Amino acid sequence: MYQEQYFLTIRDINYGNHMDHLALLNYLHETRVRFLRKSGYSEIDVDGLGTGLVVAELQCNYRKECFYGEKITVKMNLELLSPMKLRLNYQVTKNEGEVAANAIIRLAFLDRNKKVVVVPQWLQNLAKG
Amino acid sequence: MYQEQYFLTIRDINYGNHMDHLALLNYLHETRVRFLRKSGYSEIDVDGLGTGLVVAELQCNYRKECFYGEKITVKMNLELLSPMKLRLNYQVTKNEGEVAANAIIRLAFLDRNKKVVVVPQWLQNLAKG
Amino acid sequence: MYQEQYFLTIRDINYGNHMDHLALLNYLHETRVRFLRKSGYSEIDVDGLGTGLVVAELQCNYRKECFYGEKITVKMNLELLSPMKLRLNYQVTKNEGEVAANAIIRLAFLDRNKKVVVVPQWLQNLAKG
Amino acid sequence: MYQEQYFLTIRDINYGNHMDHLALLNYLHETRVRFLRKSGYSEIDVDGLGTGLVVAELQCNYRKECFYGEKITVKMNLELLSPMKLRLNYQVTKNEGEVAANAIIRLAFLDRNKKVVVVPQWLQNLAKG
């Protein structure tokens, strides 16, 4: 399980005066990038061999309104659906653990010729463990 | 069925030099707002009585990479899941009809006190028709 | 002098793989909003009487490229140009004080009827002090 | 003189229910990219030799509030300040020619080693003409 915290900023707030439903998704993305970076990788080179990742599917259930300045916690874990398919399960909470949203992101991995390849071994290991 | 066309702009393009997966979702949002506006309403007042809508759930399957300057077509139709639940079904195509993405957005409707209310009648009618 | 720190996130990075020139400006905005909030106000109600502020002019000189994950410091001070005109002077630094950008934002204040009014007294006092 | 037209979209609108001051700047950027593209180039390769451009300075004066769905016209012309410095002068109008904003963007040109180089000849020619 990987976790990050963020304070909602003014660019997250839309004309309804609450967090935009799409603004939330940026924090899922940022969490993924920080996780990769702490392992020495990036979305563009996820294994040191030039394999990249793309989002194949995204699902999000919105449960609570969020507001400017609130602190949210994004928890993420990895689930291997098949050798080619990695799923990230996200939970976003605010305040004392209230669930603001649940989300799933399925990733695909592409080699330098944009051919789909298996999930890099280190991610498979983390997903299994 | 409601439909809009857009040209992808430079703010849609991310560091992978293709459309960001979240940028696509802005076009679903814009299509929804244009549809409401053509009917004389907005997300903040969807029935002339101050009822607002919020996104309760979002799903998107990404099928094709999209690039700067490409023209995309967003088709949207309405499906009534229950008197309280309206689902928007989206298909995003590019070029000669290649499917770039499919998406579903489930909406909830809130009165001025943020209490969930039934789908406004005119939307129920369109969803049924 | 008011000051905030930020870590650059993935949505700040554009297709040149560095911080977008417009992404930087969000941090100037966020700094202004945090400053107002710590004083108990917001852009929409800057004095407790419903006076709002708008950006009348913005200037930014870009000095250094910035990259994902870098920590930037935004310093802001207030300068009263006239009873109607408040200027915010910004300096953005990274690492050990390298200047990444200098910026100026001139604000105008509007009452509820969108008529330009004088700079609220508490801001005038801070600008003078 | 180069010109483009845009309809303001929902992601341009902020919690003040009008166009965000930073949203406007995206349209200056998009206009520049379209102009380059029509000449066969991009910001990353502005002369077919791998020379890139970066924004060195940006100034914008905001004159009129803009709202969702409004059509804006962005006019841009080129002014050569010195062999190394190109300035883009922008005027943004809405409705029947009301000026919404005036802006200036000064560009610098960098070779593949990020060394500043002269303005590409074809742009110098256009700026002079």
From TrEMBL, chains A, B, C, D:
Record keywords: Hydrolase
Signal peptide (from-to): none
A GO molecular-function annotation: fatty acyl-CoA hydrolase activity
Cross-referenced CDD domains: 4HBT (cd00586)
Entry keyword Hydrolase: yes
Keyword Hydrolase set for record: yes
UniProt xrefs under InterPro entries: 4-hydroxybenzoyl-CoA_TE, HotDog_dom_sf
Family (UniProt): Belongs to the 4-hydroxybenzoyl-CoA thioesterase family.
Record protein name field: Acyl-CoA thioesterase
Organism in which the protein naturally occurs: Aquella oligotrophica
